[in-house]
């Protein structure tokens, strides 16, 4: 099932958008994220009309379908097919001739105010989606940290002030809660395990605001029951807020059913085992991408991604949480992410340093 944003009673506050500075731009070029694209975000903003878009049940969504004048629409459709070809097959448009742009939707909700492009295979009616957004350095750092430190590969491109992302398919967390947290083919322990791992990844790499509607649950049928993975799909709140618990999904009210689910199905010792497994995996991923991660964190450490008050509040809280005074020397959010990785490296080497109640199955308030 594809993730579909719906109206929520507590939308994000609008954090400022941060420009892409030269070191980050150099990083993006080095790893072929920065490309020349025929369609930019600002061009898509010049639509002529819009109409509200309802979901399959006829309920209103946060999206509006937009239309352009006829001459612009023809050019846009061809340009968007080229963008999709660059995103998917490195620009080989010869294998994309049977695709057509079916719909362009716009969402004013959130910081990136995205356009969602629905592209369809004319031979079998199979649709796909991709997004064109306003480029924000915070979000780009979030996407890249997810690519390097998580089990998920992120496919995105930048072009000046434009960001293009592929669709992340899955069941939105809030919809998953509404369905009763799983089904007959999903073992509770597997979901609880993935929730603990997801919680730990967000905390270490400082990805904030992972309320249930900002991540998806991916269920994959297997020969023995079903496998599950939790994936973030919103990276706007990467390393901005000063509150420590903003980076721990377990403490959001929206996620309380997930947290209570973990408490019900996991012993604290087992939760800590899964937490440690994910810490080790993050360190292994960091080692495999050592040069890339070093360049990314160097660029991030030179960027201002949050007000000084947020940085000082967070570094003080992290120093207390990990019991390491070295955090007080950090002068950027990038430095805090680097220090978090060092903290879990030290904790893996010395288990006595593990903070208490630090997993999704512990520390509920």
Structural description of this entry:
This protein has helices at residues 22-30, 41-44, 70-89, 137-149, 173-178, 188-205, 256-265, 268-288, 290-301, 308-322, 333-349; strands at 49-54, 60-67, 99-107, 115-121, 127-134, 156-159, 162-166, 171-172, 215-221, 226-232. The chain is of the alpha+beta class. It has 2 domains: 22-166, no CATH class; 171-353, Transferase(Phosphotransferase), domain 1. The strands form 2 sheets. Strands 1-2-3-4-5-7-6 form a 7-stranded antiparallel beta sheet. Strands 8-9-10 form a 3-stranded antiparallel beta sheet. The longest helix has 21 residues, at 268-288. It starts with 21 loop residues before the first helix and ends in a 16-residue tail after the last helix. The relative contact order is 0.12. The model is unreliable at 1-12 (pLDDT under 50).
């Amino acid at each position: 099932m594809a993730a579909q944003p719906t109206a929520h009673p507590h939308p994000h506050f609008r954090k400022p958008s941060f420009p892409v500075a030269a070191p980050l731009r150099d990083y993006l070029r080095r790893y072929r994220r920065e490309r020349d694209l025929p369609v930019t975000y600002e061009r898509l903003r010049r639509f002529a009309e819009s109409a509200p878009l309802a979901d399959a049940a006829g309920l209103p969504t946060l999206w509006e379908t937009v239309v352009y004048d006829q001459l612009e629409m023809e050019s846009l459709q061809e340009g968007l097919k080229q963008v999709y070809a660059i995103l998917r097959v490195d620009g080989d448009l010869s294998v994309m001739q049977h695709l057509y742009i079916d719909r362009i939707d716009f969402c004013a909700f959130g910081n990136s105010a995205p356009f969602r492009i629905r592209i369809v295979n004319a031979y079998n009616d199979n649709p796909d989606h991709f997004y064109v957004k306003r480029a924000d350095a915070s979000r780009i750092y979030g996407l890249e940290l997810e690519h390097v430190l998580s089990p998920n590969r992120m496919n995105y491109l930048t072009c000046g002030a434009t960001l293009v992302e592929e669709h992340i398919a899955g069941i939105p967390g809030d919809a998953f809660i509404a369905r009763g947290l799983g089904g007959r083919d999903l073992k509770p322990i597997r979901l609880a395990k993935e929730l603990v791992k997801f919680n730990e990844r967000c905390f270490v790499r400082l990805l904030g605001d992972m309320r249930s509607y900002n991540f998806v649950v991916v269920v994959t049928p297997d020969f023995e029951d079903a496998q599950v993975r939790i994936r973030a799909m919103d990276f706007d709140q990467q390393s901005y807020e000063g509150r420590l618990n903003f980076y721990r999904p377990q403490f959001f009210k929206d996620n309380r059913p997930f947290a209570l689910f973990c408490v019900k199905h996991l012993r604290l010792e087992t939760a800590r085992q899964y937490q440690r497994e994910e810490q080790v995996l993050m360190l292994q991923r960091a080692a495999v991408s050592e040069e890339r991660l070093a360049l990314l964190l160097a660029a991030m450490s030179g960027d201002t991604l949050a007000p000084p008050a947020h940085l000082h509040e967070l570094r003080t809280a992290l120093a207390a949480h990990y019991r390491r005074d070295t955090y007080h020397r950090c002068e950027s959010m990038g430095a805090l992410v680097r220090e978090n990785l060092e903290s879990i490296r030290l904790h893996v080497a010395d288990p006595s340093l593990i903070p208490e109640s630090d997993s999704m199955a512990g520390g509920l308030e």
